[in-house]
């Protein structure tokens, strides 16, 4: 594999390893050896070390004294803790969009993402579905105009993607349930119904958490 843009090499390596963790190719508890990654990707050991620090910050690995980097283990406590936090972040973004949009044309990106989600659901394409689920939040960033909120979501996104991927790989039929909730969310945003936005996103987070915990118990 050849990487470009040396100034972002560590981020590219981190993204590559994150994708393998999210898809389950690197298993919980599995050791990630700097030397092997360096040789496999033909990059410097310093860049790999920096990439591992990025992954640790995003909660995909833990770096232990004298034992090195290991893929973080999924636990019910981790799932419920992250889902509770993400629920509040989703609500902040949803409310920001509802309060800030002035013309319906500004909501076009969300409608485009909705169509892509529908297509991914029809193809049973879990990877694309998960990616576009987070693109919904990224489309909301300009409305929130809050760099701290954006940074927090981006740092937590890989761990949440890992959870979603696990759940949807085991129960792909649930994609249609998430689509229904997203449709309800868009309707609430257009109506500027703040109470309904909170209710829909709370229900979405609770449903996601239940699905992830069920998938975790079955894995």
Automatic annotation (TrEMBL):
Alphabetically sorted, this entry's keywords are: DNA-binding, Transcription, Transcription regulation
Source taxon at top rank: Bacteria
Molecular function (GO) terms for this protein are: DNA binding; DNA-binding transcription factor activity
SMART domains reported in the protein's UniProt record = HTH_GNTR
* Keyword Metal-binding on entry: no
Write down the InterPro entries for this protein, in alphabetical order: GntR_C, TF_FadR/GntR_C, Tscrpt_reg_HTH_GntR, WH-like_DNA-bd_sf, WH_DNA-bd_sf
Asked if Repeat is a keyword of the record, the answer is no
Q: Where is the HTH gntR-type domain?
A: 7-74
The residues that cross the membrane are none
- Would you tell me the protein name for this molecule? Transcriptional regulator, GntR family
- From what organism does this protein derive? Pseudomonas abietaniphila
């Amino acid at each position: 594999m050849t990487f470009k843009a040396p100034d972002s090499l560590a981020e590219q390596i981190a993204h590559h390893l994150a994708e393998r963790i999210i898809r389950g190719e690197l298993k919980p508890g599995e050791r990630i050896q700097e030397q092997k990654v360096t040789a496999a990707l033909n990059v410097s050991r310093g860049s790999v070390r920096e990439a591992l620090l990025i992954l640790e910050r995003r909660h995909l690995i833990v770096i232990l004294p004298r034992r090195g980097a290991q893929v973080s283990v999924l636990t019910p406590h981790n799932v419920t803790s992250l889902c509770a936090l993400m629920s509040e972040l989703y609500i902040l973004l949803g409310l920001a969009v509802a309060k800030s949009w002035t013309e319906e044309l500004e909501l076009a990106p969300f409608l485009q993402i909705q169509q892509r989600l529908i297509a991914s659901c029809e193809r049973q394409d879990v990877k694309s579905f998960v990616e576009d689920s987070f693109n919904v939040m990224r489309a909301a960033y300009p409305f929130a105009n809050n760099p701290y909120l954006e940074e927090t979501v981006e740092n937590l996104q890989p761990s949440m993607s890992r959870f979603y991927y696990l759940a949807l790989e085991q129960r792909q039929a649930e994609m249609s349930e998430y689509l229904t909730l997203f449709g309800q969310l868009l309707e609430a945003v257009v109506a500027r119904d703040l109470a309904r936005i909170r209710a829909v996103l709370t229900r979405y987070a609770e449903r996601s958490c239940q699905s992830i915990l069920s998938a975790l118990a079955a894995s």
